[in-house]
Amino acid sequence: MRNIASHRLEDRIMVMVRTKGALVGLVVGIAAAAVDLDSIAQERELGTVFNNLVILVIPFVVGAVLARLLRMPRWGGVAVVGGVATVILDTVLMRLVPDHRLFGFDERLTTGVYVLAAVVGFVAAAWWVGESGAWWVRITISGLLASVLVASGAIQEPYRRWQEVRAFEVAGVPLLAPRAPMGLSLYATEVSPGEGEDGSPVVFLEYGRGSGSRVRLFIRPGTVATPEAACVDPYPTGSWGYESNPCRSLGGDRWVRRDPDGEILVVARHARALVQIEGEAVPEAELIAALGTLHPISAASLVSCPAAKPACTL
Predict the structure, then answer these.
(1) Of 136, 166, 196, which closes a domain?
(2) Measured distance CA(257)–CA(183) in Å, rounded
(3) Cα 262 to the chain's mean position, in Å?
(4) SS3 (DSSP) at 127
(5) Is the pTM of this model over 0.70?
(6) Same domain for 10 and 148?
């Protein structure tokens, strides 16, 4: 009977210790999330390096203070193990959270990762250093943390590329590309959900070769403006000053505009898309010809092509 009562007492103590660990983790996570929320509100004014450094220190400092205030057994060990576990889980979860820039959701939602990581990390730490913590518990926790860290690193790049492909697929913009103008290589592609002045998505392609010619395409839904209006007020707004020449019609709902510095812009509607093509050190005839070669392209090609060696031309 005494052994049973003793085991029950130990179990209650461990439940209490883990509960305290969860409480410490909750406060640590909220503190880290608050720092990141403030950084987001300030538009990363102090930079992500400073922000990440503060978030890195919080689990160890705040964790130690709270663990001692709550009179957790071996509070120093709880702070160290909990801090390490929290940093590892922060890293793992941040690798798995979808990129808000690709999918257009509020970046502030990602701060919940800090709370989840800290709660799990400090509960694990309380279990690790608890009076009844057996060797197998410590080996299991260490193995799990190491495994998820290695696994998340292994899938990070394929997952990032999958996200990029998926973002192009769900953007709501027809995916088009011209035959490479003047033999230039495609070296940059981006998709921005809701980045247009009217909240519309934008697909961006850039062709180039060394420091010479440049061709940029902005592809938007065809409903955002007429080609004439888009020529008068190109995307992004304010990118073409008032000193540039007025738009002139090329016929067939195509419009062209020339900057005093020699940059040329051509706007046209293609199927369900509004296409804006700009060129530096590229003849107007080449840009107009490039519009005529527009063809559907897969999201996977848009993601993989700029990384291809030698450079891809689509």
Answers:
(1) 166
(2) 23
(3) 35
(4) helix
(5) yes
(6) yes
